[in-house]
Hints:
Elements: H1 2-19, H2 22-32, H3 47-62, E1 67-70, E2 74-77, H4 84-94, E3 102-104, H5 115-128, E4 133-135, H6 143-146, H7 151-159, H8 163-174, E5 180-183, E6 187-190, H9 201-205, H10 218-224, E7 226-227, E8 235-237, E9 244-246, H11 248-257, E10 262-265, E11 274-276, E12 282-285, E13 299-304, E14 310-315
Parallel strand pairs: 1-5, 2-3, 3-4, 6-10, 7-9, 10-12
Antiparallel strand pairs: 2-13, 5-6, 8-9, 11-12, 13-14
Helix pairs in contact: 1-5, 3-5, 3-8, 7-8
Amino acid sequence: MNNENNVNHSQFINFINHLLTFNKQMALLYKQKPSEKNKPFRFNISSNVIVKLCDLVKPLFQNEPNVLMINSPINIFGDIHGQFSDMIHFLEMTGLPPDQTFLFMGDYVDRGNNSIEVCALLFAMKIMFPRNTYVLRGNHECPEVNMMYGFLNECEERYGAEGKMVFNKINEVLCTIPLCAIISKKIFCVHGGISPHLNKIEDIKKINRFMNIPDGGLMCDLLWSDPSGNTSDNWGVSSRGISCTYSDNAVFRFLKNNNLELLCRAHQLVSDGYKFNDNNKIVTVFSAPNYCGNCGNDGAVMKISEDLVCSFIIIKPTNQ
Length: 320
């Protein structure tokens, strides 16, 4: 048994290290064959490897609570959306587990060309470094959404007749991921935001999260809602056509009720990669620079020090 565990450990470390060579291998290929720049660069990750990763990581997520309690220091990612090359750039700047701890706040798939690589690396990191890798669910971690915005197409392009199986297998895992995290008892982290159905953190703990994202209610709002920028009206109608918006006043009240100091969330493109609201009670983090290849935005990862000082690593938009 010990020998088998050692072999598995070695295999996963080798797999992670292989994934981390993505940018170097892509640059080498494009240098040797410039015409390949017109095609997505992707690793050949077999369906058997994906299934194995899913089978190993799913119980790890299932056994975690809806609300993770994590200590700083920590590195926090916002939306990645299949932009694996940028994810690797960030990891090269932050350092890796077990020397660094990470919280990923959702939206790993869709839009970009490499959702498979993003999921594979996240799952492998969680398997190898479960106390240094924490993953939250975003609104795209749901088959009803990611079948429409690119992930299903990527699976079918890469795996042919097995594409739908791979798509379903990964989504089974994505539907088990925790909903929120609290850093050092003071920073509330969630993909979208708060909800009129949310008063105390205990309300989140009561949710059955092991399902597709509902069309309304607390779980939906946690993953879909946005700050409105208003200071008065607590709740508004979202332009997304689902969930709601929330005011600075609603955030202030939620934080005060739960003895928290900051709401950290993702879900929205912000031009500088991060954005604080006017009273510094909300910060949005977006980790996909030049989103969709044409938005021209910076990407950011937020670092929280042991004494809860926030700083940011920025990647400027580039065209590869």
